[in-house]
């Protein structure tokens, strides 16, 4: 989870390139490794204690999916990397949760970095770093912490639902990536709801500074989501275009479909972004509208009563010779005059549509 | 109709890729299938009860157009897909109303996804998902629901108007796509009218929050329209450039023309978009102008009467020795003074162009 | 003239592609056809009654320029199209005033669509659709209505000024296009004047809503101009790059020059566009400045007289025991106090630079 | 100097293409021609009376630089053009001060158009049109008027400073262009100073409309600078990439360096542009801040004295039975009450941070 | 340090191209040269007095890193340049602190210009110009002044940490560039902190003009950072793509990784840029909110007391015949009436949510 970048940046400064350093924050206590080993007719699922126990599965024939939770266990990652002959820079990227989504093609394997997005219990966006290594007959997935979006895939393998058991490791990689991307739609949907909520708040009475804060918070979230999602377009496109021997021709069709989904996410993110930016303008006009209303009330009251008060003031003067004061009905006539002024001004404001 | 995305996103999460799931909302009761079978000299039109009845038409020689309404009848779509040998991902895209416009070229057929746009009875934009499969001698169109923009095409086939009966299935696909795109001009026109209406409202007296709301609504609509229309550019361009054997050279000229129309729609959408964004600024200045006017009225009234009231207050004081009070014409002189002040200030405001 | 798009869009919906339908508004009564037939040593100018009379000129050897005014005479256009072997889609584009600028290359001819821009007597922008067909030894120009920018070209041909008489039909096409583009500089200049005028208005006293309206009108005009001019860049570039046998190598140099002019128009349009958008901001600050000034006047008056009025009020109270009232010079002392307050506040505002 | 485009646009409308028409404004009285003739060991500098006197220099072997001031002497330009075999369109571009920067490659020569920028004595931006013709062993520069940025180059040739005397005419062209580009840094610097000055003004007390005007003026200047500078990037890139035999391989390194400088100018212009646009926002917030301050003063004064005045008014009423009026210390008690209210409100505003 | 560009621009105007002129400001007293000479088994570190002492190291076999601090010692740079056969334009770029980041490939060496960014003790951004020359077996780094980000690299060489001692000079170049880029993350982080601080300030009570100033300052800083960082993308990409024989294939993988880091910096800069621009809007709404609040207070007070004051004024009039004045409880009744008005208005404002 890369909520706060400060400590992580610090940790890697001045490091030897290729150093495997975990810069995230979510230190899951134990290393968690589980293995799915399967082909069309065979299926085995194991939870391992030691990373070394995974080696025979990788080397054996059936398709193997090894899922590792806990990027803070860097020695285990390094051991596995050595066994699978992974380049040191790859191991660095697996542990470096700051790494942006990317794909790297090596002779013997493919390396993909993605970001899983969640909204946590406080409705705050949290980002989990996830990497995949696709080798000959195996996929290894490295997750920062427990909890993922792969449960339905596990069930598909377990109960042999769909094509998955009859396809290769490249299809498994596709399916895993697809699950990550599908989950983005959830995220986008929550963003959409948040925007709509805020829009409603704008037109109701709410404490004002909160709204500015909330808009700013949404802006930051959408920018984070963009940063996590946008490089994906290039990643999947590269994967689709790549001539790597590990990617089967049949899988390519599915990758194109995945690319389509990413474009869709892309578009939605852009639309929501524009809408969030628009919220600030809306808010501004709402404030101005309210001020306008306040001003009108003040103006109406002041404009009506200031002249009347002046008149009252005139006849409160102590000149010896003010003839009106001595008329018997002077007081009543004055009330009539003041009523005329009062209703005349009301009528004027009515015509000006201020009332 | 993809008004509200929430339920649809949910439905497909964790699905096996290639699953044919209808995620739209408009559940037309029955499946509706009709067939147009024609060539230069022959014409037949049928409404079918079962999807299986369509097979002989597809396999027969004359050009066949099969139109299917009701994407919720996924089993029928799957059956037809199996008969025509369509890839599972295609079937998924036919039923997935969230799919953005695209074109997919397969060995034996072309697959095109478009969006039909309508304004419904409440003047709300609604989007209908439509897909076309162009095979050897046939076009199948899949519509979400009843009602389309193809009536004039049906008549052209029925009464052999224009070139349509003497051209191939690729020309039919062009004509169908052209009808969808032509309809966009209607949509754009309605948007133009809405913008003009709103502009007029801005300069008249209207309840204010409604206008902000209305502008926000227009923004969302134009963004939706963009999302539906923009990928089309690439779709038609790809279709035009494609070397697929199903597209005749003669039809290519028409596709280029279609591309031209799409560019035109494109430009108009962009212009209207800029104008809608400009509305917010206009609205803001309008509010500010009104506030300015309100402020001026207040200022004029207050500035005139506050000094006068002060003078009246002065001669309302009860000092024993205020010589002015004992002048015989003191009261009248004071009125003169106050009139001078009154008209002096009026003249000052006049010169400042506040009146 | 495509002022109002509504009727035109409607007219073409559901039409057979390639239908020649005039969708403009300016119905010039009669068809007007005139012919310039010339080469280095020969010159003939005729006004024709029937479109058929033009055929011999087209087929004859000297360079022929046929100018046709009145796109509503669609039958005549169709007849000529048949004689020159023009594709139906071309004829549709000639009559369709909504068609954006473009170039189409066919085996035997080139087809170019442009827009002529005018400011009419009410200073409103009006757009005229104009198309050119360049064939072997002839140019046909189709104008919506009478009145064009070609008078100087006619004189150059008549009096054999410059190179025109010794060059081919491709040079004639260049010269005609150049005249259209040159005229854009006039249009841009008028826009520049309008912007400057509006800027001046902003700083003088003017009825406010008019300015917002005027800015919005300018925005629309510049967007229309952009739409008419921007596709031209691609048109001339394509023409320059094209290897079509009808374009002589010598003419290409002139086309490059034309391209240069279009870039220049382009740049100016963009600059004026930015300036028009900036006007809204300027206007906003101007309003705010005025409000600020109004507020200051109110604040100064109110802030000075409200305390004074309070003091007068105090000594207008009827308490039995107010010793000040009985001082012989109490009244005069109070005046002194009030003057001190008055000038003290004036001095305060002076120091705050409000005066 | 192309300050005001109106007359110039008019002058060229309807002209035969290739006409040499000077459209600028700065009519230097006499034609001014001077010649630098040099090679490694030889140097000659002459001021010529007649353009024809330049011919032998051009045709002779040593490197020749002919500088011509006074584009209004179009006949002289045409004569020289004929001698050097220049294309009529080139001659048109030399005299047409509206021509944007460009490069044209011909078989026997290269033609480059640039803009020299100055701030004149009133600190107004003025643009001078300058063109270069690079032929075999000579460079001809055409300037609109006297005064240029080449003095240091003249000295380098005179006193054989640096490489210039031992390099070819292509290097001379580079050196001249480099001088023009170097001068842009001065221009940019002045713009930077103007922006900073304006920023300072924003925070001090200044007459307001002037600032809006000034910002608008800066916007126009930066747009003009952009228009003069931006095409240069392409010009130098083209020159660098060109395979023209007149450009030596050794000079290419210097051209790449020149390209670098242009990029740097480019970046600075863009940054200043963003900053100027930002000034408007800054100004807006400054106005709002001031209004806020004004409002606070008004509110504080009004809010304190209005209730006090009300109280004084109450005890100024003439009811027969107002017991408070008869208390001996009523008046003093009231003063105490009013002081309490006064300081209570002051304290309230203090806590609200309005004071 | 290129804080203020004015003097530097001036210095180079009119210079002979290829002149080695230091235009920076930080004149470190003495030239500082130190040498690291190493291979897998050998290590030597020396501080040199004369630039000439470095020659044997460069010519010897082990990898040599020569670091030079003090660009104002231009003669030393020229001497070294002559020894290493560097092009004069390269020497000019080494000393010209205005030079933007770039890479130049020559036959025998590679030349890279970067910018080191620091925040100095006043938290002001300062930029240091740094260039690298990669030759056969050596890297020379030219720094403007003392102090750099290479300390950890020195230790890695000294204590043979990581791969560095067993790799070539190209890897050393990579490591040095990597250190510069890694440091950018620190800079970005500080920018992030500053933005957050400013955001917090916005919602608290602060002197207003400072915030506008501060936002403007941040804008300028982020623009400077962009200018320093953005060209890097192209630099590293070119280095990665280059087929230069000095770059080993193994090092290329590391360069790709460096490219990745630069993209990440890039993205962060863009995000912070958007956020800084957003701050201005936030500030604007904050001001408006405050003004709205001020207005409400004024309106409430004025609206309540103006009518009450009017009533008091009425009964302060001196008409002979005002019957109410003679009622025994008139005064008390009036108080009741005034309380009713008072609380009625309070209730009205409560319902309007102004309180």
Verbal overview:
Five copies of one chain form a homopentamer. Chain A contains nine helices and seven strands; from the N terminus they run H-E-E-H-E-H-H-E-E-E-E-H-H-H-H-H. By secondary structure, chain A is α+β, with helices and mostly antiparallel strands. The first copy, chain A, folds into two domains: 9-285, CorA soluble domain-like (Beta Polymerase, domain 2, 2-Layer Sandwich); 288-351, Methane Monooxygenase Hydroxylase, Chain G, domain 1 (Up-down Bundle). In chain A, strands 2-1-3-7-6-5-4 form a seven-stranded mixed sheet, sandwiched between helices. In chain A, strand 6 and strand 7 (138-143) form a beta hairpin. In chain A, helix 7 runs antiparallel to helix 8. The two termini of chain A are 55 Å apart. Mean pLDDT of chain A is 87; it is low at 1-11. Chains in contact: A-B, A-E, B-C, C-D, D-E. The interface between B and C is large, with 63 and 63 residues. Chains A, B, C, D, E: This is Magnesium transport protein CorA.
């Amino acid at each position: 989870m890369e909520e706060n970048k400060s400590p992580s940046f610090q940790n890697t400064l001045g490091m030897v390139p290729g150093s495997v350093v975990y810069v995230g924050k979510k230190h899951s206590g134990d290393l968690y490794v589980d293995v799915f080993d399967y082909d069309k007719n065979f299926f085995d699922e194991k939870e391992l204690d030691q990373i070394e126990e995974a080696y025979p599965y990788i080397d054996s024939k059936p398709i193997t999916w090894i899922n590792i939770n806990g990027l803070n266990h860097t020695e285990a990652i390094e051991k596995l990397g050595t066994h699978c002959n992974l380049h040191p820079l790859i191991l660095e990227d697996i542990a470096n949760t700051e790494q942006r989504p990317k794909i790297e093609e090596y002779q013997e394997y493919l390396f993909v970095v993605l970001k899983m997005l969640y909204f946590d219990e406080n409705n705050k966006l949290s980002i989990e770093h996830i990497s995949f290594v696709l080798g000959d007959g195996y996929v290894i997935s490295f997750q920062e912490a427990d909890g993922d979006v792969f449960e339905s895939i596990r069930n598909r393998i377990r109960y042999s639902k769909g094509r998955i058991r009859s396809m290769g490791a490249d299809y498994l990689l596709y399916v895993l990536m697809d699950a990550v991307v599908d989950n983005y739609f959830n995220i986008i949907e929550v963003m959409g709801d948040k925007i709509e909520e805020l829009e409603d708040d704008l037109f109701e009475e709410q404490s004002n500074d909160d709204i500015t804060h909330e808009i700013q918070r949404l802006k930051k979230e959408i920018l984070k989501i963009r940063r996590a999602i946008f490089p994906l377009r290039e990643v999947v496109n590269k994967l689709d275009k790549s001539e790597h021997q590990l990617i089967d021709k049949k899988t390519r069709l599915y990758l194109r479909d995945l690319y389509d989904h990413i474009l869709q996410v892309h578009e939605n993110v852009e639309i929501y972004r524009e809408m969030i930016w628009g919220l600030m303008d809306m808010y501004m006009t709402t404030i101005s509208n309210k001020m306008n209303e306040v001003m009108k009330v003040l103006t109406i009251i002041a404009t009506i009563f200031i002249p009347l008060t002046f008149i009252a003031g005139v006849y409160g003067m102590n000149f010896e010779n003010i003839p009106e004061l001595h008329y018997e009905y002077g007081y009543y006539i004055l009330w009539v005059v003041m009523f005329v002024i009062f209703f005349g001004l009301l009528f004027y404001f009515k015509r000006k549509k201020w009332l």
